[in-house]
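G., the chain you wanted modeled:
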Amino acid sequence: MAGISRVTLLEEPQAAFYAWIESTREGWRREVSVGDVILVCDIGGGTTDFSLILVSESQGELVLERIAVGDHILLGGDNIDLTLAYAIRNRLAGEGIKLDNWQMRGLLHSARRAKEEIFENPDCDSHPVTILGKGRRVIGGTISTELTRQEIEEVILNGFFPKCGDTDRPRERYQAGLKELGLPYASDPAVIRHLAWFLQRHRNDSDLPGEALRPAAVLF
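Predicted structure as tokens:
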């Protein structure tokens, strides 16, 4: 492998944690204390992973120990993009405009670009979304609409990061609003409920009191 004789593969949450330590140099030692539990949330394009890191002490030095690793959840940014695309499709359908599978693929890419442009520009409240026509009407049949910041926030907060309690678990079936979109989710799309269940399963790993583990720091 490129002339490297010794290679160690790391899970993404652990690699992200090491990158944070490296970025702070020795500063991380001033940000944590013995007994702290650090939650690492890695929400990628297609998957979500959680890890817990316990801060302990050995011979006067801080020691970091990974005490829990979550399941490899098939849920991530791609699901958010797909949900946005279906939300736009449903809005267009209400206006009498129907899209076929080929146009849906184009809509997915356009919705993703619009989302990224809005998030990268705090002053941008909406962004155009363009869907090409078909056959001889590729240009003339172009469909133009827009995606707003409010729509994005509603989809993300209501569908993927809703409010939940310490004892909540992922639901076996999706919320009605998301079911109507016809998306092929394999599990509850609410990332936050997967996180709550992860913390419940590992609440005793750090020997801390309390009904639910409450991390002292969170690294996204």
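Confidence is low (pLDDT under 50) at residues 174-186.

Shout if anything looks off.
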